[in-house]
């Protein structure tokens, strides 16, 4: 999953970014409102964390501009302001959630995951299932036929993206946009190699393949009968 962070405090931005990357997210950062708005409208994200107090353009104006463009990007408003009125203004501007500084990183992660689940309409909290393949998003565990499968963070992120798009063909570009950041070299073969490694763990030891290549289009994860 790919997250946009719009935060002018370098230490806070680094704290959030480093933690999310360790959790397997792809992360892009902007240090002012204008750059944040540009990224939000020109790149593809699964969620955004936007501070209110920003240079060039404040966070509420950024969120308002995002909504005026018709974007339904899930947004967590980040602020040191704690009053009820401030929270109401953040939500009325188009924010989906509001988190007050200082905050526990585990709470931020849980809120991001909840917003992504809501946006993708995952019914069972914290888990996704496709046939006998089950992913526990909160505990970062994957099982197939009740056998636990050990995945690296990027493998987990790639599988999560495929599972959230079950039955839908996703291109190499779409995968790179959501699993790696926008600075990644599009000429690289990292997607192909990661899909290959994922197949070795998810498909090869089992009777049915779930990850399928659609020649000239991309990949799809689905249970074929």
In total, the number of domains comes to 2
SSE arrangement, N to C: EHEHEHEHEHEEEEHHHEE
Query: Tell me about the biggest sheet?
Result: 5 strands, parallel
Assign the CATH superfamily of the largest domain.
Response regulator
Shape: elongated
Query: What's the CATH topology label of the largest domain?
Result: Rossmann fold
Essential attributes:
225 residues, Arc Repressor Mutant, subunit A, five-stranded parallel beta sheet, alpha/beta, single chain, Rossmann fold, 2 domains
Tell me what the structure shows.
The strands form 3 sheets. The protein has a 5-stranded parallel β-sheet, with helices on both faces. The protein has a 4-stranded antiparallel β-sheet with strand order 6-7-8-9, covered by helices on one side. The chain has a two-stranded antiparallel ribbon with strand order 10-11. The protein has 2 domains: 2-120, Response regulator (Rossmann fold), CATH 3.40.50.2300; 127-221, Winged helix-like DNA-binding domain superfamily/Winged helix DNA-binding domain (Arc Repressor Mutant, subunit A). The longest helix is centred in the middle third of the chain and has 16 residues, at 105-120. The chain has helices spanning 10-22, 33-42, 59-68, 84-92, 105-120, 153-164, 172-179, 190-202; strands at 2-6, 26-30, 47-51, 75-79, 97-100, 127-130, 133-136, 141-144, 147-149, 211-214, 218-221. It has 8 helices and 11 strands. The two termini are 29 Å apart. The chain is elongated. The chain is an alpha/beta fold and 225 residues long.
């Amino acid at each position: 999953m790919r997250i946009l962070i719009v935060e002018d405090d370098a230490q806070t931005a680094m704290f959030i970014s480093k933690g999310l990357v360790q959790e397997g997210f792809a992360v892009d950062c902007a240090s002012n409102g204008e750059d944040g708005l540009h990224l939000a409208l020109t790149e593809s994200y699964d969620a955004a964390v936007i501070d209110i107090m920003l240079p060039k353009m404040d966070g509420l104006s950024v969120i308002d501009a995002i909504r005026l463009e018709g974007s339904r990007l899930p947004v967590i408003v980040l602020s040191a302001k704690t009053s009820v009125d401030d929270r109401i203004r953040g939500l009325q501007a188009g924010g989906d959630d509001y988190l007050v500084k200082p905050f526990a990183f585990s709470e931020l992660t849980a809120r991001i995951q909840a917003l992504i689940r809501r946006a993708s309409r995952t019914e069972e909290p914290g888990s996704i299932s496709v046939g006998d393949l089950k992913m526990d998003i909160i505990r970062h565990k994957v099982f197939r036929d009740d056998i636990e499968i050990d995945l690296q963070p990027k493998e987990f992120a790639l599988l999560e993206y495929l599972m959230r798009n079950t039955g839908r063909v996703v291109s190499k570009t779409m995968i790179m946009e959501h699993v790696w950041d926008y600075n990644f070299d599009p000429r690289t073969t990292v997607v192909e190699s990661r899909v290959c490694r994922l197949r070795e763990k998810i498909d090869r030891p089992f009777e049915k393949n779930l990850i399928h290549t659609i020649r000239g289009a991309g990949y799809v994860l689905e249970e074929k009968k």
